[in-house]
Amino acid sequence: MALKMVKGSIDRMFDKNLQDLVRGIRNHKEDEAKYISQCIDEIKQELKQDNIAVKANAVCKLTYLQMLGYDISWAAFNIIEVMSASKFTFKRIGYLAASQCFHEGTDVIMLTTNQIRKDLSSPNQYDTGVALTGLSCFVTPDLARDLANDIMTLMSHTKPYIRKKAVLIMYKVFLKYPESLRPAFPRLKEKLEDPDPGVQSAAVNVICELARRNPKNYLSLAPLFFKLMTSSTNNWVLIKIIKLFGALTPLEPRLGKKLIEPLTNLIHSASIQLCVQKLRILIEDSDQNLKYLGLLAMSKILKTHPKSVQSHKDLILQCLDDKDESIRLRALDLLYGMVSKKNLMEIVKKLMIHVDKAEGTTYRDELLTKIIDICSQSNYQYITNFEWYISILVELTRLEGTRHGHLIAAQMLDVAIRVKAIRKFAVSQMAMLLDNAHLIASNTQRNGICEVLYAAAWICGEFSEHLEEPNQTLEAMLRPKVTTLPGHIQAVYVQNMVKLYASILQQKEQAGEKESSQEITQLMIDRLPQFVQSADLEVQERASCILQLIKYIQKLQAKEVPVAEEVIALFAGELNPVAPKAQKKVPVPEGLDLDAWINEPPSDSESEDEKPKTIFHDEEQRHSRPRQPEMDEEELARRREARKQEQANNPFYIKSSPSPQKRYQDTPGVEHIPVVQIDLSVPLKVPGMPMSDQYVKLEEERRHKQKLEKDKKKKKQKKEKKGKHHRHNSLHTESDEDIAPAQHVDIITEEMPENALPSDEDDKDPNDPYKALDIDLDKPLADSEKLPVQKHRNTENLKSPDTEVPLVEKKSKKPKKKEKKHKEREREKEKKKDKERKVDEEEKKKSSKHKKKKHKKEKEEKSKEKKKSKKKHHHSEEEPVESVQNGTLDDEPLPVRNCPRQEMLELTYDIQGNLQNDSQVTVSVIFENKSTSFVKSMELNVLDSLNTKMIRPEGSSVHDGIPVPFQLPPGISNEAQFVFTLQSIVMAQKLKGTLSFIVKNDEGSTHEKLDFKLHFSCASYLITTPCYSDAFAKLLESGDLHMNSIKVDGISISFQHLLAKICFHHHFSVVERVDSCASMYSRSIQGHHVCLLVKKGENSVSVDGKCNEPTLLSNLLDEMKETLSMC
Amino acid sequence: SFTGLANQTFCTVLLYKNSPSLKTRESEDIQQQIIRETFHLVSKRDENVCNFLEGGLLIGGSDNKLIYRHYATLYFVFCVDSSESELGILDLIQVFVETLDKCFENVCELDLIFHVDKVHNILAEMVMGGMVLETNMNEIVTQIDAQNKLEKSETFIFQSPRQDR
């Protein structure tokens, strides 16, 4: 051994250590990759050795290589080996490597659970510390669940060094395992008042992180934090607490008032105005850091007090010229909140200048998004002239290499759809864009911007009636160059070309120009094939479809049939904007259960195999009808009418407004579209594009005119009502409201369904990892909310010496002793109780028959009383005939199966499947002598059915009984077993039987007979079989199971109780339980799998079952329904 | 958030990461991309501009920002989200550098290059799982010294024959 060690350390002398590796890499600058791959080979050799020191050294080097960007995940197992080294030196290397390269997808991570648990409870505080640090980097939901309890214990460790780490890591645990938040929270709260400042700061840190996401749950902590804020001297803690109060104050207005005083003490001034003034000084400072922070603070104030910041617009605009990009970005952010109707054009103009001279795409893209954000904010609130906005958008398309083409496109679409008055102008601009598409799409670097062509094509197609030169636009759309555009844009081109074509066709036909309409058709037929050949499936499909359509039109045109009306009808109806949340807001009508099956669900893949023919058959039928070729005109018209009718009746279909064009013509000012300037002297400017600047001038003039007019009016008014409104008029200033928009603009609001439910949860992202931590922390802890504690699997007997249980108890007692807190003690108690309960349950499951019977008897006692009253009049005459009647009386369903019983003798039976033999069950009968007489010579006989037969000793006939091998003195009970054979087990059965016996007392002996019935329920053919969840899942997936379900209402007992009932009465075992949902499994003696999904609702329970024998399943479920309905 | 250290020749010295986006299967590639982008962003900034930087796409969007300090040939870069105070992090970098100075006795770039593991260990005492753990320099140094002592007591069996500084 010693030799081996020496050998190991000699080996090590020749190995490279980390320093050698670093030096080597620095010396091999020119062939670094080669050198490193050579090193990795060496490391692989080292990892193969037994010596842990060599391995640790190798892992240490790997960590460095990982930093350089080399994948080391292949060594994950070796890292775990090093982590489990006994020496701290190696352990630390292992954990460091793990924290750098492990992630949730690392599969060996689950092997670490026990190692980490061991390290957490290590007597060496640095082992614990290093484990906590490492765990904080790679904790997974599984690790969090398994280790939450251990970490919580560490929160009360004697060493503050461990305490603070344990407290801090709890945040990570909460994120991965939200269920732990409530049980751990009381202790976390305690840590806020920890004597050690480090622990305190960690606790504040964690709670601030939690509260930042879900502040409302932490309002109750406000007084505690208030105390901390006034008492703490730690700046870190103070900063965190103030941040926390920032999140809390909006929720609790009184808090703000309370905070003013301490906050004033802290920052000397709480007044926003003063604050902003101070910030201005900061921003004007030459120190760039102060400037940045000043702007940052300003933007925070802007959110709550926009007015006070707006007065500093000059300063912010000045910051836009700063040479520092970070500062410019901050200033941009501020601008967003500063715009008004009055200054929007001015600000945007300034921004446009910046766009032109900005270098670096990041900043320019940022500018672009900001311009769009600023203009479109709160439903275009600040835009007075949409022509201006459209020209801004068109100007933005000149931007080189932007990634935000789709943003511009979305804006164009939105404005064109929602602002009807602007459509004509928008269409003319878009037509221009299409005409100049080569400028936009030519440069491959600019491909982001070609998204605008998507919008342009759609707008031109959809609103083609506004086009001045539709032919030219169509021509532009059919250019061969278009085929170089991305597929989705081409698809839109193809679709909208037809719209355009349709409207041209209509124009020509109305004008009677047959030839030119045929020409245009020919043009389409000539050019469309280039799209048919497209590699993009969407384009190809649309193009070939449309090509056929147009060829057909051509045929009709040749016959001189007017077709325009028909073609245009393809695109009849107007599109209305629908709010993005509209679908979600449609209220669910009463009585509609969205979760209920509409049809019987297909029983998985099996049915797919079975029924493919019928499915296809159906579909073929469906297809064949609409494919009827060459519909005649009448049919078409009739259908169109029907469709219109249907649309009119359908509340969800967007109806076309009666005459959009008419309304459009009413709007004033649109006719005066400014003459488009063509500025050929300026390069790079798309010819024919308008300059947005001119609008600024125009707007100013317009406003001036308006103002003059208004003043004139007012003067008139003044003259009329002299003196009366004098004061009012003299105060006139131009406010936002006074600026009338240039066009009459009606912005169509997005449609929402009627009686949509208002909700504020719309904006929450369902994937937000912090949402899971939105947990009410003020509710008292429930029993069920316990962190999982590691426990022994095979608790055979509560009394048997168990190694694990006392150990855990010892561990958990530690803090109790130390802190002596009442709360703590209670929790321990609960924990213990919980454990006992669990043991109890387990025992129940594996129960010896003994216990079951006890249970039964208890119940029987209860039912006995009932029966007594029923049978009273029979008591005196104990004749065999009567007892047969007794038996029939007992036909009533009873919760517990017990044989009919005479006053003196009681039978209880239990039926159990036989694991060894798939067609046998064992019936155990307990005979109890309740009389004062001696009972002997008992003989049990059963009337066999075709299916079920009692096994009798060889040679005896079917009519012979089986002697019970014991006698019963008074008050004694004993058990005998009888074996039955079965053919089929899918149905429940009842067998009649008779017990004959001799009663012997002082008066002599009498021969007695007792009739009974044995009820073989389907559940008695089931054998409680444990099943692992993955096997269970596989079983469900296998798809050869039939499905059935029941629902029982009016259930008040707890879910746990309910599951216990099902386990007990129906021989199921729980596979998995999540909240009020559990999957259960059992197996019949003939090997049928029975899977259940039990769900508990408010006070109902639904049971979905799957089994490979449908009859068995339905019978089982019926039995279950009976059991449950008695709950 | 992550912490990075880089010298002027764009040789990363240290990267400590704790961000879900970094912890994926392709993490090494993304990690290198982030280092490159961060270095690119930071290194081209003038001396007299501020120490805060935002807008890097890779670092996780608008909630995150880079806060860096430039010491001689080294950049110390922290990437933090909005729950951290900007000035606080600047201060933290200062504490980090001072701690390094104490632990290495007049720290220089080569110390950090050759003893990445030690730098990691020091950082682990200050930041844990992406959250600030300790800001008191004396406390940090005490713990580091104690751990080094422990390490020494264990290493009597194998002693690295060469000590590089």
UniProtKB/TrEMBL annotation, chain A:
Residues 610-646, 699-711, 766-810, 825-845 have a biased composition (Basic and acidic residues). It is a peripheral membrane protein. Transmembrane segments: none annotated. It comes from the Eukaryota. GO terms for biological process: anterograde synaptic vesicle transport; antigen processing and presentation, exogenous lipid antigen via MHC class Ib; endosome to melanosome transport; Golgi to vacuole transport; neurotransmitter receptor transport, postsynaptic endosome to lysosome; positive regulation of NK T cell differentiation; positive regulation of transcription by RNA polymerase II; protein localization to membrane. Residues 748-765 have a biased composition (Acidic residues). The keyword Cytoplasm applies. One of its GO terms (cellular component) is glutamatergic synapse. It is found in: Cytoplasm; Golgi apparatus membrane. Part of the AP-3 complex, an adaptor-related complex which is not clathrin-associated. The complex is associated with the Golgi region as well as more peripheral structures. It facilitates the budding of vesicles from the Golgi membrane and may be directly involved in trafficking to lysosomes. Involved in process of CD8+ T-cell and NK cell degranulation. In concert with the BLOC-1 complex, AP-3 is required to target cargos into vesicles assembled at cell bodies for delivery into neurites and nerve terminals. This is AP-3 complex subunit delta-1.
From TrEMBL, chain B:
Pfam families: Clat_adaptor_s. InterPro entries: AP_complex_ssu (IPR016635), AP_mu_sigma_su (IPR022775), APS3 (IPR027155), Clathrin_sm-chain_CS (IPR000804), Longin-like_dom_sf (IPR011012). It comes from the Eukaryota. GO terms for cellular component: AP-3 adaptor complex; cytoplasmic vesicle membrane; Golgi apparatus. It is a peripheral membrane protein. CDD domains: AP3_sigma (cd14834). Belongs to the adaptor complexes small subunit family. This is Adaptor related protein complex 3 subunit sigma 1. It comes from Crocodylus porosus (Saltwater crocodile). The gene is AP3S1.
